[in-house]
Structures are given as structure tokens and as C-alpha cells.
Write a structure and sequence with these properties.
Structural class: mainly beta
Oligomer: single chain
Helix content: under 10%
Number of domains: 1
Radius of gyration: 13 Å
């Protein structure tokens, strides 16, 4: 995510306690290398996880290249997983 301002952080939120029940500011991710952020969360097997990414508020959520809000990401948890997602832009892309 080269579009994240240097002073910002990326957050994950979703339909489960681990990603904070849709609180856009509760679960901060850690920058692991330039442009890449990560977070380990525990979710029980069989859970249908829905989630999104923000820069701390719904006013600055991930959007597609056309400026449209991305739909919820969905993942059916069956085993330990590593997921890579490319976020092209943020809703408030005026920095």
C-alpha cells in the first residue's frame, strides 16, 4: 500500500471480536516492510469472517481504483491462513 501517508496506520475491522466488531479504529496493524502491513488475529475454525480496512475511520476506508467503496472481504476460516490484499486507494485520497 504505497498510498498510506507516512504518519498514518492501517486498521482491520470486521464481524468478529478479533477484528473489533466493525470499530474502524480498534485493531491497528503493524507495518512489516515499506507498503506492507500485517496483523495476526485468532478466529475459530468454521467462522465466516467479513472484514475491511481503514486508516482509522469510515471516512478513510479502502476503495477501488474508481473511487468506490470496496465490498466486505470474506473468508471462511478452515485452517491457519495468510492473506495478501492490495488496496489501491483510500476514500480520502487528498494528502
Amino acid at each position: 500500500m504505497e498510498t498510506v501517508p507516512e504518519e498514518s496506520a492501517v486498521y482491520i475491522t470486521g464481524n468478529h471480536p478479533a477484528p473489533s466488531f466493525w470499530n474502524p479504529l480498534a485493531v491497528v496493524m503493524k507495518q512489516v516492510v515499506d507498503g506492507q502491513w500485517g496483523k495476526s488475529i485468532e478466529v475459530m475454525s468454521g467462522m465466516n469472517l467479513k472484514y475491511k480496512f481503514t486508516l482509522g475511520s469510515w471516512e478513510i476506508e479502502a476503495i477501488d481504483v474508481n473511487g468506490q467503496a470496496l465490498p466486505n472481504y470474506k473468508l471462511s476460516i478452515e485452517k491457519d491462513s495468510v492473506i495478501f490484499i492490495v488496496i489501491p486507494r483510500w476514500k480520502k485520497d487528498n494528502w
